[in-house]
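Revision sheet: structure tokens.
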Amino acid sequence: MIIKNREELISSNLRARAVELIEAGITRVLPANLLRAAIKYNHERRSLRVMGESYDLSRGRIFVVGGGKASGLMAEELERIISPADITAGIVNCNSGNYETKKISVRQAGHPLPDEAGVHGVQDMLAMKARHSIGRGDLVICLVSGGGSALLPCPASGITLKSQQEITLLLLRCGANIKEINTVRKHLSLIKGGRLGAFYEPAKIVSLIISDVVGDDLNTIASGPTVPDPSTFSDAQDVLKKYGLTAKAPKNVVDFISRGLDGLEAETPKETCNCDNYVIGNNSMCLEAMAEKARDLGLRPNIVTAELSGDTTRMAFEKAEEIAGGNYKGFDVILLGGETTPTLPENSGKGGRNQHYVAVSMLAMKKQHPPWLVASVGTDGSDYLPEVAGAMVDDRSLPTAAAAKIDIDDYIARFDSYSLFSNMTRSLIITGSTGTNVSDVILYLLG
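Predicted:
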């Protein structure tokens, strides 16, 4: 059972169906299911097959590195597929602990802000190269998933962890999209933007990637540690200027980027010939599983997009208008995936983009003929707040809030959706960490 408070939520048939669809989608993209479908290992020949490509390991060793919200469960399943006896050593950083692994050490680190534990984990990953003399013929499997940008901190020379934390917080709050955020992160790191792959040369790197990024942009997922980086120091500076952060950013960050512009700091690698990168899971897989479950329930699903982006508030109103305008006539399940971007006020309340999307939708959908339901969920189980994956409302929610004299507009204006739904009950979707991350899914159920 993925949704922990499902009994509280399923107060109607429509809500019960919504819970079933959400759980079907997340189950499909759990790391164990994705890894079993993507890789095979021949123990006798010591041969690894990844999505049709084969790797001969008869003369080399296997090492494991990586990080992200799914890396712990990925490490567990990898050891089941490739026995611990055939793995020499491994370290991955995850935002949760208590994984049953024998050879791969799962280190708990900070997210969404990087922390010292994350830095120590990365340092130990890098130290493995010299400790085990990793070289030609060896294979380094890199487990990558959403959240890896924060969970794999390794500040460049002259950049402190505190500076990384400060610039990360500024970027998260200013409305920058994930590609812009990671453009800056890559240029302040020793391992992001392809640098991790370059570090392990001449060993072969195989990255198994669970994508949380719209369009599966490889150099954005976890800031692309094994992927060539097309962005430059100039691009990083442009992001700071665009959002008015040049004066607010830590001085050593601004100075470092300036040195990069002057050629005094090395650019990120523009090619990584020793790295093969495979996307083994993404948002589309989650949406397809939800659609399949909907058909099993006798419903008519429409997957609109797996690449939703843009301002959270604007997208919620836009999709409500499309539904009211008959754009999806003939369908009773509307599915969207991706990641919207909220722009927070100075003194914002609690809640993430999924909760905010649902709060706005409660107003945007009020003209829709009942019954209807809207749910938005972060597949990792954390909508900025731990434990809370998102929220769900239906045509009964607005009258209930009005009867309780809850000022929905005020909560929305303050981006305090968590407090709003805490007061309303039967709205917050509680999962805790799911162990995976393919960004967000949005579900509309129409009577």
